[in-house]
Amino acid sequence: MTDTPVEESLFQIIHCFHQYAAWQGDVETLSLQELQALLTDSVPRFMDGLGRKEPSYIAELFRAADKNKDDQICFDEFLYVLGKLVKDYHLQYHRQLCARRCAQHSLY
Hints:
The chain is mainly alpha-helical.
């Protein structure tokens, strides 16, 4: 039985986390540099929007995700980062859907 698209996506997220975590130090956590590389490489459109490539944005995201303040992001803490990504993409989805519907009904 083949994986569903959602199952494949979940596997890819886990694989991506471990791929970047293995760059330096603990292979089960991300450093600030590893998180920055992961985001820049894996979600470039998200990072291009609203000044997210600014080092201060990434550092603040890292600090907010690092719940135990050990200067590392474990997978559970990485879920906070994923939550921010999914929330932003969800908002973009609604904006695009609204824009399409508004255009269809000449609301602009």
